[in-house]
Haloacid dehalogenase-like hydrolase
Amino acid sequence: MRKNTFLLSSIVAGVFAAMLFESGVSAQEDPLPSWNDGPNKQAIVEFVAAVTKEGGPDFVEPGARIATFDNDGTLWTEHPIYTQLAFALDQVKAMAPDHPEWKDEEPFKSILAEDMKGVAASGKKGLTEILAVTHAGMSTAEFESTVTDWFATAKHPRFDRPYTELAYQPMLDVLNYLRANGFKTFIVSGGGIEFMRPMTDEVYGIPAEQVVGSSIRTKFEMQDGKPVIMRLAEVNFIDDKDGKPIGINQYIGKRPIASFGNSGGDREMLEWTGAGDGKRLMMLVFHDDAKREYAYGPADGQPDTHIGAFPQSLMDEANARANWHVISMKDDWKQVFPSE
Amino acid sequence: MRKNTFLLSSIVAGVFAAMLFESGVSAQEDPLPSWNDGPNKQAIVEFVAAVTKEGGPDFVEPGARIATFDNDGTLWTEHPIYTQLAFALDQVKAMAPDHPEWKDEEPFKSILAEDMKGVAASGKKGLTEILAVTHAGMSTAEFESTVTDWFATAKHPRFDRPYTELAYQPMLDVLNYLRANGFKTFIVSGGGIEFMRPMTDEVYGIPAEQVVGSSIRTKFEMQDGKPVIMRLAEVNFIDDKDGKPIGINQYIGKRPIASFGNSGGDREMLEWTGAGDGKRLMMLVFHDDAKREYAYGPADGQPDTHIGAFPQSLMDEANARANWHVISMKDDWKQVFPSE
Ligand SMILES: [Ca+2]
Ligand SMILES: [Ca+2]
């Protein structure tokens, strides 16, 4: 009888443990399952534990738990070209039938001939013209619907999947983990604010109002008695480098306690975050994984790049600061994309 | 026995009802206790019921339940002068010992002599100079601490209470009621964004990142190896009139389904809100209560004013649109301020 009771207890306990495990409520559950164990994963977990421990020396009120994330190269793939540039090039092709003159005009001529070297040769002037025709001259509603349609159909040239499926699973883990611990997560990106907003909620769980980015000027006007906001071909704000702390101050109005980036454009955001009082976490994604994604630096001898460059000076600064951490995609991430 | 059981049941039911009433969980609880019954209170309650009824024709997903509120004259008192102007004048007085030259220079001379007509006579040029010396030339951190200190000590000349106690209780009711129904509440004000942010969470339950306002340009720089954001004497954005829908689009990135204002500066915000699909609520606070607060228009024959003017054309537009409602402070509000 005693033996049977013991056996029964064991079975009940086992079933109960299995239920806990499967329902995901176990205290031992891994909050960052796509991360390999190591100092970087540990730094995230220890930071979250410290700032959420009520009565502890590092406790931070929920309202001040602000975390900011760069987008391109930090939350999703930015090679071989920025997703927004891929969108712009596709738009030029889609608009070409209405612009027969583009056959003879750069940078359009090169885009239509799929001559990326020619596009690059058109330089900043060419890029400005591409952005003007693809990003301005329409209402905000029209632009949003064009972007939404494009995300639904366009595919990344190497991975042959929608761009929205090329978010990094380990960073989605971090976003979810932070939010589960009372953080408010924001994107602070050099990319266009209205290009990102149509997809950030679905892809990252970040609503439009928590997206900070670069923007062009807009104009409110009445068209046939209905108010519209028109997009103008004039720069309003560049949310890159020193623009990132300025954008954070302007849009969020609070200093983040954690910031994540991947390039020289994120340096000032991380410096601004780190200069606040109390415990802080600054992390940089380093792309050293040509096999699963891409490898570029030029820091630490990785190939140089014009897209999302991580200069050696940034690596040196990160190594010199105790609460800055460089994430090795190759070593730290068990999995890169959601569908692997 | 039957009679006793009946009596007991009545007592139990009565006690239970009293408990419900006192604990505030009764379905009959008034969600807007500071409002008098009438069409305006009814419009708010019916709107909220409609957009939150799952499966109903007017249902709106929680993520799209965005409500925007003007601040001066809509959420708190703006007479006899805007609170931010009262702050600026007090700052000039506080800074005067370091500026002996102000004794002979307008608009400072008039401010120090408490000559408000002289200040007004200095016009836009004078106002720009006042704002430059009181709002620029310091870091964002210094400005925040100056504003916080001022709010802790300054008092309204008529009501002899801190400005932060001059929020309108009926609007606090609306903010709480909307948030309890899954709305995200934003301030969209012509006032300075960094002047409002230090007090909005405490006064309205609206965190800094949900405050949109006018701003000056800022500059990120290193001072003694520490990053600071300096406030420059250059306008960045004026969040008034057509600037309100532009600011909403830029900061929030979603069109509100409800908007609240009180002056000609809110017209475009309400038009933009109302032009979206589905059920919408647009409301304007009309100050017709000189006894409990102030009376000004010039609409409907109220005294004309330079501060928060409600023109007749706005009244006509509101009357012509079915889902615009003009709130009479005198008739609709049972109570004006929290401590009455
Ligand atoms: Ca980046
Ligand atoms: Ca107002």
